[in-house]
# Entry
Amino acid sequence: MADEITNALKRTTRIQLTKCVNTANELLNEESATIEDLQLAVDKLNIINDKLKQVTRQSLTDLPPDKLDDECIKMLEYEENAETVILKIGQRIKIIEAGNQDNQREETGSLHSEGMSIQRGQERMQRNAKDSSRELEFVTKMPHHCAVVGCSNNSMKD
# Structure
């Protein structure tokens, strides 16, 4: 009876791991998959894979020696499938993170560029204000009739 329960648990856990591997592979094909989605798939794969290892080891103690090799090969195949997709997900996460870092650099560069444009605009406004101030000072020091008519001091002396 215990053998039947262990075998049933092993069978259902293998099915569960296969479904999880297939779902993870589908997720890898989705461009909209986020790091959180991918990490969740890795966590599920690890949990189910660990559970399968545990159940398989329990069943190995009850197997006749002639079936032991076949069962170990199956266990390694399931483990390899899970680990392969986990590695692929890890690579995808690195690619996404690298892209996120590039985007952050671009945004930072863009913000820096915008900040520099604002700073240059402010400097230009300050220069223009100084120039206007000098012009106003020059005009206020001119004799009144020259400012109105637009003549120079030299022409008035003539």
Q: What stands out?
A: The chain has a mean pLDDT of 79. The chain has one domain: 2-119. The two ends are 129 Å apart (CA to CA).
